[in-house]
Design goal:
about 375 residues; alpha/beta; 2 domains; two-stranded antiparallel sheet; 16 helices; about 40% helix; binds fe (ii) ion; Xdiol_dOase_suB; Extradiol ring-cleavage dioxygenase class III enzyme subunit B domain-containing protein
Length: about 375
């Protein structure tokens, strides 16, 4: 269901008190009165905020329906549950030509710096996931790897997403007492500048940084995944402490789709971070397994991009401030691409729900080709 159709139906009720009274008096007539199918009309007249949110309707609008149809000013009947609504048809995939790999993984420093603090079996399963993803990345034979991470120890001039435009990137794990894990990477200044230009052309702000000091956010995943040390890498750094917009992250990714295709390069896109993870005093070590499962199910069913419809608070409340990094990747990949979860491990000692996910671009492209063939009239 298109979110805007539902929002328009609810706002039509808001603007027309007589229509609202008619629907309240005769809920079974809501579908005809609102031009919706019976299922979604029922979600409105039942005041089912959780279901409406699953279609991307924003919270400020869904609260209207519980006020009108539940006589529940305190909204005590809503559970705030996150629903993966698999009854909605999956949009056709439209993976950019030139994108040869997409995936996501956590970047927890302890995985390399002191893995002994977590259960050995869980660490083993997580590392197995990284090894599978490393094989996928190598098989994709990329010319350049775009990698998102959030700002941990760096300092930038603005609150915008940052693109590293330097010819090289250096980083250190000295904060974790493991200088032996330091890393030096090759950059790709020309393509990085072209990416920044594409974002600006889309009317968005971006900070270009000639120097991006790598921290564990890039060092850990790239030490585990990069096929060869001289493969060019372009860091994309988010700054959730300064700005947090799920919509903005998706839009940033979408702005990069065309420049990837026009570059003629084989481009890999890796998101890093999360899933649930709090640095707040008193909360470090908590893991929201239920919400992590919701996010992974959204990815598995090809609906990860829809997470961008959530407002900032639900994500932040569930410890997902690093999922912004994933939404940039999902914005590049586009809708309808399923993710395969290679690993998920809730690890209290290292402080989060850690995961490894491979986005199945090949299957999405095959499905798109099938759809295209089906659309060709018989006999042509
Ligand atoms: Fe992080």
């Amino acid at each position: 269901m298109d979110r805007t159709i539902l929002e328009n139906a609810i706002l039509t009720l808001a603007r027309d008190p007589e229509l609202l009274e008619r629907v309240r008096a005769n809920p079974d007539d809501a579908a005809g009165a609102l031009g919706l199918d019976a299922t979604w009309a029922r979600a409105i007249v039942d005041g089912d905020r959780d279901r409406l949110r699953s279609a991307g309707v924003n919270d400020g609008i869904t609260i209207l329906v519980s006020r009108w149809f539940k006589d529940d000013l305190g909204d005590s009947a809503s559970r705030g549950a996150f629903v993966v609504d698999e009854s909605m048809p999956l949009p056709a995939a439209d993976v950019p030509e030139g994108l040869v790999f997409a995936g996501g993984c956590s970047h927890v420093p302890d995985l390399l710096a002191r893995p002994e603090i977590d259960p050995a079996e869980a660490v083993g399963r997580l590392l197995d996931g990284y090894h599978r993803l490393a094989a996928d990345l190598a098989a994709a034979r990329p010319d350049v790897v775009l990698v998102t991470a959030d700002c941990h120890f760096q300092s930038f001039a603005t609150q915008h997403f940052v693109i590293g435009t330097g010819p090289a990137h250096r980083g250190s794990m000295e904060f974790f007492k493991r200088p032996d894990l330091d890393l030096q990477l090759t950059g790709h200044p020309d393509f990085a500048a072209a990416m920044a230009g594409a974002v600006q052309a889309a009317g968005q702000e971006v900070e270009l940084a000639d120097r991006v000091d790598l921290d564990h956010g890039l060092i850990v995943p790239l030490r585990l995944l990069l096929p060869r040390p001289d493969l060019p890498v372009i860091p994309i750094i988010t700054q959730p402490a300064r700005s947090f917009s799920p919509f903005g992250a998706r839009a940033f990714g979408q702005a990069l789709r065309r420049v990837i295709t026009e570059s003629g390069l084989r481009v890999a896109m890796l998101a890093t971070g999360g899933l649930s993870h709090w640095l707040d005093p008193g909360k470090f070590g908590a893991v929201d397994v239920e919400f992590d499962a919701y996010l992974l199910r959204m990815l598995q069913t090809g609906r990860g991009l829809d997470v961008s419809a959530l407002e900032p608070y639900p994500l932040l409340d569930h410890g997902q401030y690093e999922f912004l990094n994933w939404l940039i990747m999902l914005g590049i990949v586009g809708p309808g691409v399923r993710g395969e979860v290679y690993a998920y491990e809730p690890m209290q000692a290292s402080g989060g729900g850690w995961t490894v996910v491979h986005m199945d671009l090949a299957a999405a492209r095959d499905a798109g080709a099938e759809t295209g063939r089906a659309a060709v009239p018989a006999g042509v």
